Amino acid sequence: MASIMSGRKVTGEVETEICRLYVEERLGTGQIGRRLHLSRTMVVRVLDRNGVGRDRSRTGLAVASAQTRQAVASLGGQSVPSANRMFSRDRELAVSSGRQSQMTDRDED
Fold it and tell me: I need a surface site. Which of 18, 42, 63, 80 has the fewest CB within 10 A?
């Protein structure tokens, strides 16, 4: 591949490769940037300029393995001691929240 960038602009050949990697190989913008030695921001700009809609569902836990998602979910609130949790300190708030949740569930039926 010739020079990736001429001045501060990405060459047309590289723009095509960025779009191909994103659409066909389903690589994320960070992965493409690392592979082509470009910033993630530059990759995003190229995708936007070429009308490639970005799939935002491929970020964060959405792309994590099922095992990783399970591990994160199992942590659920462990970072806050139970005495400091909102519902532990305010029973009335907990009861009110439970009632609201039950009413929402009934409305959906």
Answer: 80
Q: Is the Cβ–Cβ distance between 15 and 21 less than 8 Å?
A: no
pTM score, whole prediction: 0.48
The confidence score (pLDDT) of residue 35 equals: 95
> What does 73-103 look like in DSSP terms, one character per residue?
HHHTTTTS-GGGSHHHH-HHHHHHHHHHHHH
H or E element at residue 6: strand 5-6
* Cα separation, 71 vs 91, whole angstroms: 29
- Give the model's pLDDT for residue 21: 94
Helix (H) or strand (E) segment spanning residue 5: strand 5-6
